[in-house]
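Write out the bound-state structure for 1-O-phosphono-alpha-D-glucopyranose.
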Amino acid sequence: MSRAVKKIVLPVAGLGTRFLPATKAIPKEMLPVLDKPLIQYAVEEAIAAGIEDIILVTGRNKQVMEDHFDHAYELEKILQEKGKTEALEISRSMLLEEGRIAYVRQMRPLGLGHAIWCARKLVGDAPFAVALPDDLIVGKPGALKQMVDAYNELGGNIVATMDVAREDTSKYGVITPGRRSGKNVEVTGLVEKPHPADAPSTQAVVGRYILQPEVMAHLNKKMVGAGGEIQLTDAMAQLIGEQPFHAHEFDGQRFDCGSKIGWLMANMTLAAADPHLSEQLKSIVTFK
Ligand code: G1P
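---
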């Protein structure tokens, strides 16, 4: 029986340059999709998957996320006085019990692998999940819940994957697929951002992972990979052969909210699914 996944690491130190000037003074993880910031979608997905401890790897100018997960006393007081109970409930909806959210700083932008390594003391000797809040996944159940279910069956390490166009492999970590069983595929190789001509498949890793703590020892080597960064993909690749490693083809729609078009599509898709907004949306947009 595999040890339960109770922790998640959310790397949120990125600069968000693709969204400037919006992200000059606010973190990209606070960009809303409809009315909720990206970081909240990720935390809600984690909680729905039974995860208890949330670890945010932050950087400079990210403090507003700590405020987001805390009381807003002045706002709450005013809403209470005005009898705006629904708004009050919404503003309080993300208040986890004290101690369940921890923040650790990535002091230098050395890559995703380095960001995860920054959380090693908080992760300790336990399996943990990782979610990249830029990758918004709309699924029922959520992608992390689907992965935790797969993990409870398979153990080891699991990455979420989806099929992408060959010309897009250079944007992703890409797996070499082995034996398949339903939605789970054995991973026999992993490479970060391969050129389409060199990609071992078109099965791309999207931002959801369940990892064993041993990955930290590989990250500790600080190997520099694609783009001159310390890549999580390279450390994960070293686990292959040492521990079980699978890809899980999740059910759901993934939006790259780090890009304008992905973020716009996420907004449109969620608005189209919202009973209050869909009619108004239809009056200005024609859906195929
Ligand atoms: C990161 C990972 C990559 C993964 C991608 C998914 O890349 O390094 O392996 O496929 O997220 O969104 P980034 O988008 O940060 O360049």
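---
Residues 166 and 196 are 6 Å apart (CA to CA).
The chain is about 30% helix and 25% strand.
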